[in-house]
């Protein structure tokens, strides 16, 4: 069953997440696939990865900082941010900084412990793709984005705080 | 006070629907305990020792008479006929049924109330001085800025899963009654050398296991930068605050471990990215917030009218109450009255549905239909005509609302403790009661003078024991309840953390221990110095000697 929501719809996932990777050979074992690799892995092997036939994106854990990605940030079509557990809120800050400070326009994907009741806040912080935890009901999750119709703050999804719109 | 517009109403209605759905999914078994936990907490719902507890937000302590009536209704229909005002100027209900909570929230929404973010690891209710806007010594009314903060912090998507809870206080009065320095963020309205009013912002204060006074992060920020400055601090905290140990997760530990200089530079780095951004307050928005806190329709009246002076002369009890419970108002002919909820035999902060309804009636009749809840768990009528004080006092008396012990030893801060709270190590309400019974002579209480006793049933310090002149903390010793006593704490302008006097005591020893402490104070005080000044002058030793002296 599809469990990736992108731009408000359930969709086919063309990416494979490498949760752990020892060396660049793991990619070459399956040529042509699109991989999301750990930021550390990419930093270590970026030259080896340059020749890889498929596309490579990165994911950051919640204790990593998007400001450490470096100048190639804009070259990724996708950056994934991990929720080791849904109650770890650091990736919300990373998402906003990607969008608002780095003006990143590619896909920002939530991975890990991604649950229905956090989707709305995630979307407000700039996530536009959600790799749901396998036990989540995808149809029900689609309704989460309409939990609220407006918001007080200026965030990624609404560039103007309510007090400037009232 | 602030009036909801269609946006506020809409979001609140959507929140009620959202939580109803979450509760249904939980009860149907589609949401695990651990996943429902932060959702219910961010709606103020705890699972307590005996029943769920629902904490309802009272933004910066301000309540209308309609809201009071709704709280009375809820306590009567969904609880056991009473509620409990907390040290965050909120009210909590100790006996609702989990299934009823969505309905209670719907009732609250009718009067623009809710339980949003009254618990959980998010930004909690912003508090302020209970005399804001009417105090004679105020630089500027803090409430418009509290409202701006309320809106900014409500449903803030980035800060719903912080390392730990986060509390903000704002103070615009000279005498700080808001315990501003022991908050995660403390905001003072100040005037800079150019005569411009803005904010001085502290961070890293807090009570709990490790009590700390906040440190200055922004020496002066212009009003328009308030929200971006706060957001920068929160962002640094969200990213770097410890998540490996619940007891080291508050911002005070981060500031201490990072060092205030480094922490400040991290905040400035964040601030440089969002300063002047869309969240910058506009002139119009500041005016808009201020428009909800304009003076009521005061009449031109003189101070000390005949009705008052005569009553003060003729009625000793009234005069005694007036001396402690009535404060100076900025407008001549008016007074600030505090109804002290510290009657002997009643848990501090507890209020019945009958009292709530009566408070509403009195607010309508005497104080423009509004009251404030103080962090000392009392109820303030901010705008009472001096000529009406005597009549007002007589009415308070009919519903046990005229305790004349405001600011005195028996006006204690006390958490619900082991009688209700699942976290508590020890009971706290019986300690408060034993002290009220020991010190039941009003003349003696007045002789002792201003003194704060704060009682917490555990390290989490909901009863602010660290900043009590005398602090009492319940501790668990091999399954038995003991009490640790500290001296010299204060949450006022010269804030300080109390010092532990020595080994802890059994419950029944506490009244005698406090009595000995008071004896040392009375024999050592010079002129009319209050307890805290004597303590600061003579130190802890004389108290220690007396308290632990062997009886022959």
Kindly describe this structure:
- The mean pLDDT of chain A is 93.
- Chain A contains 5 helices and 8 strands; from the N terminus they run E-E-E-H-E-H-E-E-H-E-H-E-H.
- Chain A has one domain (4-164): Rossmann fold (3-Layer(aba) Sandwich), CATH 3.40.50.
- Chain A is α/β, with parallel strands linked by helices.
- Chain B has 4 domains: 6-110, Alpha-Beta Complex (Sulfite Reductase Hemoprotein, domain 2), CATH 3.90.480.20; 127-292, Sulfite Reductase Hemoprotein, domain 1; 306-398, Sulfite Reductase Hemoprotein, domain 2 (Alpha-Beta Complex), CATH 3.90.480.20; 413-548, 2-Layer Sandwich (Sulfite Reductase Hemoprotein, domain 1), CATH 3.30.413.10.
- In chain B, the strands form 4 sheets. In chain B, strands 16, 17, 18, 19, 20 and 21 form a 6-stranded mixed β-sheet that branches. In chain B, strands 1-2-5-4-13 form a 5-stranded antiparallel β-sheet.
- In chain B, helix 3 (65-77) packs antiparallel against helix 12 (353-366), helix 5 crosses helix 9 (283-290) and helix 16 crosses helix 17.
- The relative contact order of chain B is 0.10.
- The mean pLDDT of chain B is 94.
- Chains A and B meet through helix 3 and helix 4 of A and helix 1, helix 2, helix 5 and helix 6 of B.
- Chain A: It comes from OM182 bacterium MED-G28.
- Chain A: It holds the Pfam family DUF934.
- Chain A: This is Oxidoreductase.
- Chain A: InterPro entries: UCP030820.
């Amino acid at each position: 069953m599809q469990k990736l929501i992108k731009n408000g719809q359930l969709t086919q996932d063309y990416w494979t997440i490498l949760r752990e990777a020892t060396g660049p050979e793991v990619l070459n074992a399956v040529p042509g696939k699109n991989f999301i690799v750990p930021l550390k892995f990419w930093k270590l092997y970026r030259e080896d990865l340059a020749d890889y036939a498929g596309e490579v994106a990165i994911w950051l854990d919640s204790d990593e900082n998007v400001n450490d990605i470096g100048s190639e940030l804009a070259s990724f079509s996708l950056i994934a941010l991990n929720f080791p557990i849904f109650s770890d809120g650091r990736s919300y800050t990373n998402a906003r900084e990607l969008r608002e400070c780095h003006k990143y326009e590619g896909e920002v994907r939530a991975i890990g412990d991604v649950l229905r009741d956090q989707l709305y806040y995630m979307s407000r912080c700039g996530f536009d793709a959600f790799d749901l935890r396998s036990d989540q009901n995808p149809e029900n999750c689609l309704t989460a984005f309409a939990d609220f119709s407006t918001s007080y703050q200026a965030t990624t999804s609404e560039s103007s705080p309510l007090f400037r719109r009232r | 006070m602030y009036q909801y517009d269609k946006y506020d109403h809409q979001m609140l209605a959507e929140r009620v629907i959202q939580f109803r759905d979450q509760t249904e999914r939980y009860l149907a078994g589609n949401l695990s305990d651990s996943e429902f936990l932060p959702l219910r907490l961010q709606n103020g719902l705890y699972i307590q020792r005996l029943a769920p507890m629902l904490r309802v937000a009272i933004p910066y302590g301000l309540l209308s008479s309609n809201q009071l009536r709704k709280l009375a209704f809820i306590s009567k229909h969904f609880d056991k006929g009473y509620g409990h005002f907390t040290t965050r100027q909120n009210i909590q209900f100790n006996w609702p049924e989990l299934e009823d909570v969505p309905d209670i929230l719907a009732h609250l929404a009718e009067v623009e109330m809710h339980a949003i973010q009254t618990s959980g690891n998010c930004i909690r209710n912003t508090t302020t001085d209970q005399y804001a806007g009417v105090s004679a010594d105020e630089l500027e009314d803090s409430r418009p800025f509290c409202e701006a903060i309320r809106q900014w912090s409500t449903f803030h998507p980035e800060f719903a899963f912080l390392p730990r809870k986060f509390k903000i206080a704002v103070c615009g009065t000279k005498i700080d009654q808001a315990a501003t320095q022991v908050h995660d963020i403390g905001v003072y309205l100040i005037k800079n050398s150019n005569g411009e009013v803005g904010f001085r912002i502290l961070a890293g204060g807090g009570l709990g296991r490790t009590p700390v006074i906040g440190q200055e992060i922004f020496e002066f920020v212009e009003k328009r930068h308030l929200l971006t400055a706060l957001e920068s601090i929160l962002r640094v905290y969200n990213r770097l605050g410890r998540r490996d140990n619940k007891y080291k997760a508050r911002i005070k530990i981060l500031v201490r471990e990072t060092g205030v200089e480094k922490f400040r530079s991290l905040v400035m780095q964040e601030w440089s990215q969002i300063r002047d951004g869309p969240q910058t307050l506009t002139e119009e928005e500041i005016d808009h917030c201020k428009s909800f806190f304009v003076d009521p329709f005061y009449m031109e009246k003189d101070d000390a009218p005949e009705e008052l002076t005569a009553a003060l002369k003729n009625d000793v009890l009234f005069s005694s109450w007036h001396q402690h419970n009535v404060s100076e108002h900025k407008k001549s002919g008016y007074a600030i009255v505090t109804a002290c909820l510290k009657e002997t035999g009643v848990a501090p902060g507890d209020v019945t549905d009958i009292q709530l309804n009566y408070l509403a009636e009195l607010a309508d009749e005497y104080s423009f239909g509004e009251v404030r809840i103080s962090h000392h768990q009392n109820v303030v009528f901010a705008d009472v005509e001096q000529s009406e004080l005597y009549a007002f006092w007589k009415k308070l008396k009919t519903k046990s609302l005229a305790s004349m012990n405001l600011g005195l030893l028996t006006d204690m801060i006390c958490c619900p403790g082991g009688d209700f709270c699942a976290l508590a190590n020890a009971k706290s309400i019986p300690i408060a009661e034993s002290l009220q019974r020991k010190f039941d002579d009003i003349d003696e209480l007045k002789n002792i003078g201003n003194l704060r006793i704060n009682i917490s049933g555990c390290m989490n310090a909901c009863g602010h024991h660290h900043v009590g002149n005398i602090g009492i903390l319940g501790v668990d010793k091999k399954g038995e309840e003991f009490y640790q006593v500290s001296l010299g704490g204060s949450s006022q302008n010269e804030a300080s953390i109390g010092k532990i006097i020595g080994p802890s005591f059994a419950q029944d020893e506490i009244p005698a221990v406090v009595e000995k402490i008071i004896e040392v104070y009375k024999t050592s005080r010079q002129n009319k110095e209050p307890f805290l000044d004597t303590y600061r002058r003579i130190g802890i030793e004389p108290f220690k000697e007396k308290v632990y002296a062997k009886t022959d």
